[in-house]
Amino acid sequence: MTRSEERRLIERALTGDRAAAETFVRAHQASLYAYMLRMSGRPDVAEDIVQDAFVRALTNLNRFDFKFRFSTWLFTIAKRLYVNAMQKHKPSYDSDVVGAWEGRSNSPAAPMIEAEVTTNAKAAIDFALECLSEEQREIVVLFHQLDWPICQIAEYMDMPEGTVKSHLHRGRQRMRTALCEHPQLREYVEEVWT
User: Fold this and answer.
1) Could you give the CA distance from residue 193 to residue 112 in angstroms, rounded to a whole number?
2) pLDDT of the residue at 52
3) Any idea what DSSP says for residue 62?
4) pLDDT for the residue numbered 145
5) Which domains does the chain have, with CATH numbers?
6) pLDDT at 72
7) Quick one: which of 4, 98, 159, 163 has the fewest CB in 10 Å?
8) 131-181 per-position pLDDT tens digit
């Protein structure tokens, strides 16, 4: 969605056009849910945050600053809600749930060995993600799972692009080190590449 299309939709939504509001929900719901699910590791928390973020964004649309993208504003609202929710809930990562949301769940016809390799790889990724700082995890997820460009992550995180690149680099290094130092996880990762 271009900025001009986004602006027209926001102006229509401000006048009470429900179809314009629904367009925003349809355009951003899947990516926001996937992002919140990866950050929290809990489907119930992710669903609550996404729903609350849309309610807050659409009811406060008159506060939206057109110099930013709507997605950046929406994700910022969701992140604040996530921080509040994490004060109440400890994250528990379930890669099977996250993988299924992305459409990569194992089919019943898949061979047992392939299913085991996939499960092991997901466990390794979860372990490696837990080794990152909150900031690094967020940047790694935005870049690798949601395919956000560095410039958009920088705008969203309110930091220079070079800082985002540094966090991304250090986060990947830390994940690699964590996986290499854990013998069982190192085997899991090697299974995927062989």
Assistant:
1) 18
2) 93
3) G
4) 80
5) 3-86 (1.10.1740.10), 95-193 (1.10.10.10)
6) 86
7) 4
8) 888 889 889 988 888 888 899 899 888 899 999 999 999 999 998 888 888
Contacts (Cβ under 8 Å, ≥6 apart) of 41: 91, 92, 93, 94, 98, 126
Other Cβ atoms within 10 Å of 109 Cβ, number: 5
Q: Which long-range contacts (CB under 8 A, 24 or more apart) does 14-17 make?
A: 14/61, 14/62
Residue ranges of the alpha helices (H) in the chain? 3-14, 18-40, 43-59, 70-86, 95-101, 112-130, 134-140, 150-157, 161-181, 183-193
More confident residue, 2 or 193: 2
What pTM was computed for the model? 0.58
Q: What are phi and psi of 103, to 5 degrees?
A: 85, 20
Residue type, 63: R
Question: Which residue from 151, 67, 2 is spatially nearest to 142, judged by alpha carbons?
Answer: 151
Instruction: Identify whether the C-beta of residue 132 lies closer than 8 Å to the C-beta of residue 167.
Output: no
User: Using CA atoms, how far apart are residues 64 and 88, in angstroms rounded to an integer?
Assistant: 28
Q: What is the pLDDT of residues 126-137, one digit of tens each?
A: 888 888 888 898
